[in-house]
Amino acid sequence: MEANANKKHKSSVFSALFSTPEVLRELYSAIEGIDLPQDTIININTLSEALFMKQINDVSFTINDKIVVMIEHQSTISNNVPVRLLMYIARVYEKIIDKEKVYRKKLVKIPTPEFIVLYNGKEPFPDRKALRLSDAFTEIAGLKLPENNDLMLELVVEVYNINHGHNPEILSRSKTLDSYSIFMDKINEYNREFNLEESIKIAIKYCIENDILGQFLKEHASEVTNMLMEDISIEEIAAIRYKEGREEGKEEGREEGRKEGKEEGHEEVFELLSKGLTAEEIKQRLAQTT
Q: What is the pTM of this model?
């Protein structure tokens, strides 16, 4: 298994692992509960930022040019995912649609979009939950007649919990996803006793010995360690911001303060990530604002 996605751009372990048509065919089939034929054409169109040599989204691909799928992996859930995916899907369509044709009179058929988030964080989360773009819309009462309030735009993201013990039917249908879930679970298990870097190395050793992502981890052990150190450090930064928000909320006696702290913590980190900063650079930047 090749980590193609990480050869030219900085990516996550998830996007490096799910970077070939064969693995994506397996993953999509598992999530949807179907069996895509082996001759199904999978074209990967994951977005990347050339300036910072960094991937923008985790994975996106078309299936027989009829469905365009966007899959994000998250260890914390941001309610702003539908907004981000709205911006991503527009850029993907720009890549795969002939721009000249959209100005013609004849209707141009485009692949049907599908949005998926795979969650394996520590916070409790249901097996499946839908996040909607419309939840972010501002209140327009008084500006339009009630009967004219039909939504002109909607985007629904299906979030699946892939922690072990959740959605076993999906994990059982994708060996790669199941193995990834076990690997991440082992890191969390060892992290209760060892530091993060040591926990990752022990988890890699355990998985190689037990043929869990064995070939992938043998070939990319150092890359996997570096990517996970970066990814998890980002989560720790967001958690710090969340804690600060909770403390401010307690001091002011407002629940809003705690909620704002959580949202602002993640969004501040995501904004700096989009600019290509590393975890260490983000830590330094945030330290200057506290």
A: 0.78
